[in-house]
Amino acid sequence: MNGEPALTRAAADRDVKEKMVGVLLFACAALTIFVTASILFTLAYDTITFFGFEETTVVDFLTGLEWEPRNGHYGVWPLVSSTLVVTVVSALVAIPIGTAAAVYLSEYASPKVRSVIKPSLEILAGIPTVVYGYLALVYLTPWLRDIGLPLGTFNLFSASIMVGILIVPMVSSLSEDAMSAVPDSLRQAGYGLGATKYEVSTGIVIPAAVSGIFSSYILALSRAIGETMIVVMAGGLRTSLFDPFDPFGSLAGSGRTMTASMVNAVTSDATGGSPEYYSMFAIGLSLFVITFLMNLASNRIAARYREEYQ
Amino acid sequence: MASETQTSTTWFGSTEEVGRLRGRVFKWTCLGATVLTLFLMLVFLLYVANDALRPLSADPSWLATMGVTVVLPVVLLAGYYYRRDRSAGEVAYTALGLPIFVALVSGGLWLLFRHIVSPQEWFVLAASILVAGGLVTAHSRVRHDAAVERLVVTVVVPLLAVVGVPTVLPSLRDLLSLSPVLPNALFSLVIAFTLPIAAVVGWRVRAVRDADRDGAIAAGITVAGGLAGVVVGPVFGVHPTSWLVFASPIVGALVLYVEHVVRNDEGVSGLAFPIVVAAGIFVGLTAAQTLGFAGPDTWLDMQFLTSSTSTTPADAGIYPALVGSVLIMIVIVLSAFPVGIGAAVYLEEYARSQGRLGTVIELIQVNISNLAGVPSIVYGVLGLAIFINLIGMGRGTAVVAGFTVGLLILPIVIISTQEAIRAVPDSRRQASYAMGATKWQTVRNVVLPESLAGIFTGTILALGRAIGETAPLLMIGVSASVRVSPDSFLSRTGAMPRQILSWSTQITTEFRYGVLAAGVVTLLVVLLTMNAAAIVLRNRTQRTQ
């Protein structure tokens, strides 16, 4: 009978089907490479268009201290300085709080306390940034003004604090993961030498987890750099160069970050083909490169300096 | 030994006193830092809720009535569960949360039936899918061994049934919709919406109880719950069709959950909790109405949920933006989720770690974790450049918004799905291979069903991230405020977060502390319900593993 050939044909058929499914699934995975490539390509392509305009040159863009598209000034530093201000202030808020929270959750908290605080922090991390921006604009700024800080309606100070609060869960959860990964035998060894819990936490666990902690800082900072809605809603759009001799004056006033400038380029009445419209791609490219390098660095640090435990 | 001579002089503890104070201060500082952020956000959110709901604007006697009928029984019952029966407490919050979560999903479907796919269109679509499914099954019976042919048939037949070949061959769906006799809206939904849900519920109950009768009863209850609207609907002023859309999934889910609780016979008394809450609210509201106590003058009321935005704060509402957000979510679920899950399956089950392909895989993996950290606004620029400027799709449409935000959450979906798949024990796969299953059969029949709960958790969290995203929507030109709800995926749409942003530029107090607060609370309620559901689901699966 022809049972044998039918069977082998069925098997061959199945092999082909398996291959097709495998290729299809590979295509799904490969799409992510395509996404990165197209981000780079589209941003680079339109950045070239941007620098093709008469009033813009690469040198002016990278060294200029004025951002006034109306007058043809496209110096990126005012935007970069505002972004840096937001990043630094938010880091000053988030890093101490986040690290302390991570130490508490990993070393001190009872399982019951952990089971309450961890999901709460997770829910906090799930709140959209437009809500954080709204809280900064409508509640935080008026409160800070009530206690006597000379803040404008739109100011970088409350925007930065909100960004700080936003990235606390990120710092705490990633750092806590790193600290929890430190094997208990190291802690036991510390206790065996007569160390207190404090000495074990600060002298053993934190040094052992330092690579993971640092990589969480870098990730959080990269998140702060790319944060958009909070700075757009609470930080305002006035371009201003950070004044190192009057730091609080710069913080108390409005400031336009790189991300806010991109939003402004599409939502303001800048016409489709104008240099101002295309400036968004140049800024976007800078933003992408900066955050991509930071994320890469974070991964590398976490991987390279990790103490290998069994 | 050297240590013997040293013991008496250089032991660390003897020279320096063990400081308790420093340790305590450190511990409490750490605890303080942990609680500080949570406390701050709680205060903020309480302010928002207070501004949106304005509970204090109500008549004191109204508050007292609700306190007696709702808050008091709830507190007493919660206290009882906490002291006496912890597992009943768990059942209690699940039984209360489940219908709320399902109601949220049904709300999305209701909007879909109202604006995009009419009940009759849905009926026709479901009928064509059913016919296509029947044909595919029949083919696999007749030509059992032709695997490739089956793959082709599985793709082509449904496509022909639903889409057809444009301008050449009309699809089965087009042909059916030309039919002169189509059931009316209510019956279309009974057949194409309630019955499938009831079938799933009945099949599931039948499988776990191993009794045909129980399955039939479960299915019957679900259908009855959906049809009850014909009788009960007019009493509450609810259209029977709307009742059907909400009631069928809620009743179905409740039947499944109650059956589960009763079968395990653990914490059955927790099932009383939602009944007490619902009855309390109903009695309280009726009593307050008959006694003439005025309720609070909230911003977040039916008027807000059902009307479009306006320049006068009292008339402003979020309805069109809500519809827009639902459409965007549907696009994401249909586009980003299958791709993300497919990619995760490939990376976990198919990818080899050696050779040249191994290098590519490693590159993909690093790239995915980097993509997860790319600022959302950059995805907005990508969407603008690719979908709008390059392909030429419409600015600010639901499709473009869904694709753009879908790309944004793709890495999150992939990473969480990978984790879920990794949690499936290898012994299950080996067992499947030992039975002679191929790789794809193993994935389909073993790996995916086992990791389903984990995948659900990850995707719900990702979807929660997606509905709050605003920056990408700004870049692709989603309308600041739409007054008319979108009527297709290709028409210009608004979205909840975008609407919130445009309200925030209004400077009048009514907008800032009223309409805006109500919008934020609406967004947060949707989002927190989803996140809470995901977290509960995860805790449950972690416990069983």
From TrEMBL, chain A:
It is a multi-pass membrane protein. One of its GO terms (biological process) is phosphate ion transport. It is found in: Cell membrane; Membrane. Coiled coil: none annotated. Keywords: Cell membrane, Membrane, Phosphate transport, Transmembrane, Transmembrane helix, Transport. InterPro entries: MetI-like, MetI-like_sf, Phosphate_PstC. Part of the binding-protein-dependent transport system for phosphate; probably responsible for the translocation of the substrate across the membrane. Residues 80-298 form the ABC transmembrane type-1 domain. It comes from the Archaea. The keyword Amino-acid biosynthesis does not apply. NCBIfam families: phosphate_pstC (TIGR02138). SUPFAM superfamilies: MetI-like. PROSITE patterns: ABC_TM1. The chain crosses the membrane at residues 21-45, 84-109, 121-141, 147-171, 204-225, 277-297. It comes from Halorubrum lipolyticum DSM 21995. Its main location: membrane. One of its GO terms (molecular function) is phosphate transmembrane transporter activity. Belongs to the binding-protein-dependent transport system permease family. CysTW subfamily. Pfam families: BPD_transp_1. This is Phosphate transport system permease protein. GO terms for cellular component: plasma membrane.
